[in-house]
User: Fold this.
Amino acid sequence: MMDMPVVTSGDARIPAVGLGTWDLRRGTCVQMVEQALRLGYRHVDTAEMYGNEREVGEGLRASGISRDDVFVTTKVWPDNLAPADFARSTKESLARLRLSHVDLLMIHWPSPRIPLADTMGALCRMKQEGFTRHIGISNFTVPLIKAAVRLATEPLVTNQIEWHPYLDQWKVVGACRRHGLSVTAYSPIARGRAASDAQMRRIGANHGKTASQVCLRFLIQEGAIVIPRTSKPERLKENMTIFDFELDPAEIDQIRKFSHPDGRVVDWSGAPNWD
Ligand SMILES: NC(=O)c1ccc[n+]([C@@H]2O[C@H](COP(=O)([O-])OP(=O)(O)OC[C@H]3O[C@@H](n4cnc5c(N)ncnc54)[C@H](OP(=O)(O)O)[C@@H]3O)[C@@H](O)[C@H]2O)c1
Assistant:
């Protein structure tokens, strides 16, 4: 079985492909986590908001893969970003996962209601107290990345953001690089849109690959960690078999041209303007 490549950020070694689990429920979630780990995935992404941490933990145990060989992430929802809530929420996530610690704990979305300094303090304490090996942020904009890095007393290893060929994220990606954070691309196949993209399919034909594989490979070559989700066992292998081919510079250029600042597939309309 292929060893999963990793992206390093500080002393974190983050497997470059993880399984996204948003919207995976009950038996499907257990089965997909179990199967993914058996196939060679070593990174599973969940969040308190997904309501499936119990099932993610169950899938992990059912896989028979050693706990220490899997990079498990979870995220604290904005309602719980005040320090006391943050610690309680993290411990509840761990109880549902039935784990003593996660590998990466993230702030799911920033909150304009709770001072960032308080939340960053709470996040860092979770690492210092051993509830997580690494800490990170998600959905942080350029000014918020800067503020988070300034306030953190522990290294931030990633910013998990929406990123796929249709969304121009170069400013945020640039800020992450300047501050030494890796970028984890969520919705990396644009919630399925890339899978049926005719141009991506044509590029794939040059390599004997599907449009989804081209899309994920593009993000990997741009330096991202990708966390595609699927509820179909047969697609798990497809989504991780992206390390046996390389897109050439002309193909990368062609795909870069698809991107647009308004290309989001995840709805930000409820999100306040933090800038
Ligand atoms: N931090 C955040 O705020 C945030 C926000 C959104 C998502 N996320 C994380 O990122 C993960 C991935 O994002 P996402 O779930 O929004 O979208 P995604 O992974 O880009 O797309 C998932 C969709 O693509 C389909 N799909 C997957 N593989 C495919 C393939 N090989 N061929 C054709 N279709 C395929 C899936 O359908 P089938 O199930 O039918 O295969 C599903 O409908 C989430 O699950 C979650 O863990 C984080």
